[in-house]
Design a protein that fits this description.
Order of helices and strands: HEEHEEEEEHEEHHEEEHEEHHEEEHHHHH
Number of strands: 17
Bound molecules: magnesium ion
CATH class of the largest domain: Alpha Beta
Helix content: 25-40%
Number of helices: 13
Distance between the termini: 69 Å
Low-confidence stretches: none
Shape: globular
Number of domains: 2
Largest sheet: 7 strands, mixed
Length: 433
Amino acid sequence: MTDLLSLARESAVRFLLFSFTDLFGIQRAKLVPLAAVAGMSREGAGFAGFAAWLELSPADGDVMAIPDPRSFTPLPWQSDVAWVATELTLNGEPMEQCPRRVLQRQIQRSAALGYQLRSGVEAEFFLLDPSGDAVADRADTQEKPCYDQLALMRRYPLVSALMDGMEQLGWGPYQADHEDANGQFELNWTYADALTTADRHAFFKVMVKSLAEREGLRASFMPKPFQQLTGNGCHTHLSLWDQAGRNAFHDPAGDLGLSALAYHFLAGLLHHAPALACLTNPTVNSYRRLAAPPTASGSTWSPGGISYCGNNRTHMVRIPDDQRLELRLPDGAAHPYLLQAAVLAAGLDGIERQLDPGPRHDNDNYADPLPDGAFGRLPRDLGEALDAFAADQPLRSGLGEGFCVAYQQLRRRQWGRFRAQLTDWERQVGLEG
Ligand SMILES: [Mg+2]
């Protein structure tokens, strides 16, 4: 493996951002000059864990962030700086709650079964005023704004810079469009192994936000920033590949061209959906996107229940073709590493226990929703998702109890802070009661 210092020298980089994504998905970094890179690559960059969203106390020692040279990514907009993903240790031991390690463990578990997850994400985002209060483009007002060519091209300076950046990094970008909400966009790049996709997803969010700031805009991946508009999804495309490099989800003889393995994986997603939501839909705001009333455009494009279908966008899992599954549950707040880890943990449990997904449903699940079925229903709020997560032992043991406890405690406290608020609405309604 090429070492970080050589990579930096080859790219004429002067500084490295030693970066990690904390449990709430916030990216933290230290800027390290080249002269210090060799030493810090061995020892790690030190962080006070309590100062980020990690489940630690101020009395704990330094968290050390050790870089993985495979994730070396020169910033397309700042050529003398490169980003690198790190993994966390505490007191010389790997930290169980480090999100990238949580994913690495699932990748190893999958490899032991002979499979590699390959995935792609559709990370939708809004372009807002710097205040975050309104869509930046005041002319972007169509009732059905999806694919609006003029609104897309008004953002050409930003969109083309993002596409050029992805091209330069070798991600294989292939399209960009205006999405279903006013001010909402999506850029797609080629799928890859789950760790590569997670690193790219983490970096993509930073790249979008950084380049948007340069244009005087604020980019947001928040699941539902506007009540009447479609929210930010993060649809995730999934397939398992065998050691010979064949797509093990594909089987011409199977239903819709998918293998028994794919259906077991799918069953794992359905079976664990209530607990999975705690990671794929991790914030208070996430539950304003799920099972929401129709938006101004006519559709939320988000699932209301736990079901799957063929090429139909009204269910939680879509089978778009004979190569893959599309999980439509995750939203823009999903953590790049924990999303991949959670999906893999759920799918692998489906394979290990040979779970059955039950029948496919090809109804319009918005116009004519299915009743709650064998897999129950999606959580209605973060509190319910936390309860489901606490109760799902197979998922927890797959992900690692140390991680699960840390994550759950942080989110429970956040849910408690939300619940403790007295809102303007209840005062307005309640004072006269
Ligand atoms: Mg989309």
